[in-house]
Amino acid sequence: MLLELKNIFKWVSSGGQRVFLLKDINLQIAEGEFISIMGPSGSGKSTLLNVIGMLDGFDEGEYDFLHESVHTLKEKHRAILYKEYIGFVFQAYHLIDELTVYENLEMPLLYKKLKSSERKSMVADMLDRFNIVGKKDLFPPQLSGGQQQLVGVARALIGSPKLILADEPTGNLNSKQGEEIMEIFKQLNEEDGVTIIQVTHSEKNAAYGSRIINLLDGRKIEG
Q: What is the mean pLDDT of residues 208-218?
């Protein structure tokens, strides 16, 4: 089992009332699964993804990741865990505008204590794989939305994560680029055994997954 969420609740307080973002979420994900999370806007999809990715805490419940109790770990240990095992692909790219494409890709490798020559070859592989060699010295604002998203995906994959979390990964792409990204995910999942959890509005993208989790008002609904 890669991860398990048990009775997860997350809320915010508003005017003395609890507003639930996640309600009693139970979820088991095995290594090598490809899961799509669906639901209307405001149903808690991104919140759930952020909890799984350890970017967000929660108020009640337990979370085990690779047999580590995430809910009992200090912030520093959580950070080590997600940097080591999780790659994030966000709709808003989250690239660093002041760094070149090359430097953005190298970023996740810097804390892995790899030799400079290893980092070089890993970045070169990614530039090649995504056909962005010619863009390596450009800065994100000089790229189109589609190119920025490709760089974002390449950056998520570069450290060979066990788990990829993708929030609307094709949201800003044309259909051809979107399909390319989904095919890359499919290949990673089938050939490299990478576990993928994506949040999507698209039935077509969801169909790439082996299982769909539907959320409504912060609750998991059986679909």
A: 95
What CATH number was assigned to the domain covering residues 3-221? 3.40.50.300
Q: What is the mean pLDDT of residues 199-211?
A: 93
- Runs of H (alpha helix) within the chain: 45-52, 75-85, 101-110, 116-129, 145-157, 175-192, 203-206
Mean pLDDT of 183-211: 93
CA distances to 31, 42, 131 from 38, in Å: 20, 11, 30
Bridge partner residues of 165 (DSSP): 88, 197
What pLDDT, on a 0 to 100 scale, did the predictor assign at position 92? 65
User: What is the sign, positive or negative, of the torsion defined by CA atoms of 69, 71, 75, 81?
Assistant: positive
Query: What does the alpha-carbon distance between residue 131 and residue 153 come to, in Å, rounded to a whole number?
Result: 12
> What are the residue ranges of helices labelled H in 20-174?
45-52, 75-85, 101-110, 116-129, 145-157
